[in-house]
Amino acid sequence: MQALITNIQRFSLNDGPGIRTTVFFQGCNMHCTWCHNPETISMKPVLMHYSNKCIGCGTCFRLSDPPNAVRLEGGRHVIDRKILKNAEDLAENCTASALVMSSKPYTVEEVMAEVRQDKLYYDLSDGGVTVSGGEASLHSAFIEELADACHAEGIRIACETNMALPYHRIEPMLKKMDLIMCDLKHVDSPTHKKYTGVDNQIIFNNIGRSSLLGIPMIVRTPLIPGATNDITNLKGVAEFVSKLRNIKYYELLNYNPLGSSKRMAMDAEDPFGDCRPYSNKDLEEIRKQLQDAGVELKIS
Ligand code: SF4
Question: Which domain holds residue 274?
């Protein structure tokens, strides 16, 4: 079995407890406007162009099929991804690695070869493997196999999931996890749909059902200026989380601006490009306002 993976990030400190290896899968069923991994949203690998690495050799213009799908306009590369037929060829032939495909297929054993290198660090730090994305649960059969392989070697595994697929599709994967991390971005349905493309009712239902599995859970909200950060929303999520079982804590994730350079490499719009992470002072103010929410709060 194979799955498309965009990145296997070792020594990750932000995707669960301890030192972790995070496996990012290609493809997502939500389309969050602020996504900091926008290259993972498409179900297929995306051709990325990092202009800062380009040495102007012209190979991509010569090899482009059809010939005008990659061209120079006003001194910059224009890539017409809708008509380009040989994106993988171009990435292979770009010796400067300015053109790269966002993902490639891996087998479970190939992932394990990366993952097991850091077992000692997982053991010393209470860490392990995290499957993320994109949306990990779109690859649930692969992840179930990966979880079995991890457990056979004494490695814990956690998932980051948007909980936006029908419950029967995610439950088998969730049951194999040692920790479930899931997002609830907005309590208001129209606002949630506006920013993510998906109604939040399925997410409320799935989080509620998952909390009965007896597996530790962390519910998270990314702090997106002007979208999720209003205190009424955060209080609403905190109140919902406070009623769930098996919750370790409610986590607020500071705005992550890393998606901007990736959006540029994909020639994609960047509606939150001017946003910056919150200062420690701002985060402390948010913490104060949520101190009576009835749930342990962590801000990352
Ligand atoms: S092949 Fe790579 S380095 Fe050469 S012009 Fe194209 S993007 Fe730039």
Answer: 2-43+106-299
- Ligand 1, atom 6, residue with closest C-alpha: 60
Q: What CATH code is carried by the domain that includes residue 85?
A: 3.30.70
Helix, strand, or coil here: 214? Answer: coil
Domain count, the chain: 2
Q: What is the pLDDT of residues 210-254, one digit of tens each?
A: 999 999 999 999 999 999 999 999 999 999 999 999 999 999 999
- For residue 59 and ligand 1, the question of a CB distance below 6 A is answered with yes
List, for residues 111-146, the tens digit of each pLDDT value: 999 999 999 999 999 999 999 999 999 999 999 999
HSE-CB for 287 with a 13 A CA cutoff: 15
Q: Is-contact 189 199, C-beta < 8 A?
A: yes
98: Cβ below 6 Å to ligand 1? yes
Closest-lying ligand 1 atom to the alpha carbon of residue 56: 5
Same domain, 64 and 176: no
Pocket test for ligand 1, best of 57, 78, 264 (most atoms within 8 A of CB): 57
- Max alpha carbon distance in the chain (Å)? 63
